[in-house]
Amino acid sequence: MNRDYADVSMAVIRRLPKYHRYLKDLLDKEIYRISSRELSRMIGFTASQIRQDLNCFGGFGQQGYGYNVEELYNEISKILGLHKSYTTVIIGAGNLGQAIANYPSFMKYGFKLLGLFDVNPKLIGMKIRDIDIFDVDALEEYVIKNNVEIGIICTPKEVAQDIADKLTRANVSGIWNFAPIDIKVPGNVTVENVHLSESLFILSYLLNEKEYLNK
Amino acid sequence: MNRDYADVSMAVIRRLPKYHRYLKDLLDKEIYRISSRELSRMIGFTASQIRQDLNCFGGFGQQGYGYNVEELYNEISKILGLHKSYTTVIIGAGNLGQAIANYPSFMKYGFKLLGLFDVNPKLIGMKIRDIDIFDVDALEEYVIKNNVEIGIICTPKEVAQDIADKLTRANVSGIWNFAPIDIKVPGNVTVENVHLSESLFILSYLLNEKEYLNK
DNA sequence: TAGATTGTTAATCGATTAACAATC
DNA sequence: TAGATTGTTAATCGATTAACAATC
């Protein structure tokens, strides 16, 4: 349990939220014990892969028994850092910014939204579920003063890099980026992207896969 | 060029939208020629990987010269199926549904939104940029009648599977799913997921990576 | 032609799967 | 104890990188 997880591969990491979700479902169904084999059937990974994945972080199971759902859920929550809480701001209070602000699992898992920021004078001064929309000019100062840890970029791509620079200067540790651009940040800032159009294009590809065939 | 692309690995496919985006940027900057080496520097994949990737679909380059940006962009557009247009509906006209309805690259690349559907009587009858919000009870009939190809699920997770079943019965070919659940569909329907909370949890993990260390 | 850069094969690296001894 | 299932090593499979001959 006392190991450096920096060497666990991203392939494993990216599966963790899915384990987390399925374990939550099991808990909700009041199932408290699960084998890698049963989990495999539900989640679609091989049992072997599940055991390998979980073992990157410690021996959570018990031979002959399987895994204790609640314990495993709590461990994975901890690995994902969901036992802590985070201060966040959203930049860009348009449709997408508002959607994120209202996203249920956002609140549920300890992400605390302190404010939204926009350039649009019509939006500035309004509130989204009791949270103020501020002028984006005040962003840097606000982030510093309130020790904001995560900046969520929901702006058009043209200004995304500029916002990222401001966030970086104001010492955020992470950026959740929805703008369709690869923003550049120094090594001490972590960026996670949600590129919606890339996902849509993959769907488009898959729908056409069989057709491109004959030129 | 006359090959079955079904055997190209998903790892390659998932990089295509990124090539597409960078090539568009080059075109906008009026750069018409690029080598794998230069592209590598911009995009962050190795030059070797870029050449391998592109060669899965045909020899688009020229020895001693590199790639013609416009030609490559057009080819990748075609591979992604972006030369065609698609009819779509959005189910769930809340914040997220509305955000998607207004998403710029959505319109730009041939995805035609025919209607939104919701259960909320306050929303039914309203319009989002001239597009009607209908009662979700009318979904199945509407999809059949208008030959809708893609259903976009922006509902809470509780009803997502039911909506997916309706879409499947109404013969959509693809589903773009934003609900935090793995929906089940028959093999002839393609699903592409956007699991926002999974992405957020990864960010959370990365922020904590160094801390979990000492239990 | 000489220089540059692709297309493509071979080598390496990493991730997944299989197998089974350890053990609850 | 016997049965079940993990933890973990070894084998396989796939993806990335390196290298270079082909060729523009």
TrEMBL record, chains A, B:
UniProt superkingdom: Bacteria
Q: Which InterPro entries match?
A: CoA-bd, NAD(P)-bd_dom_sf, Rex_actinobacterial-type, Rex_DNA-bd_C_dom, Tscrpt_rep_Rex, WH-like_DNA-bd_sf, WH_DNA-bd_sf
GO molecular function annotation: DNA binding; DNA-binding transcription factor activity
Name the DNA-binding stretches.
18-57
* Name of this chain's protein: Redox-sensing transcriptional repressor Rex
Q: What are the UniProt keywords, alphabetically?
A: Cytoplasm, DNA-binding, NAD, Repressor, Transcription, Transcription regulation
- Signal sequence interval, chain numbering: none
Query: Its GO CC terms?
Result: cytoplasm
Segments forming domain CoA-binding = 81-182
Query: What gene is this protein translated from?
Result: rex
**Which organism was this protein described from?**
Alkaliphilus peptidifermentans DSM 18978
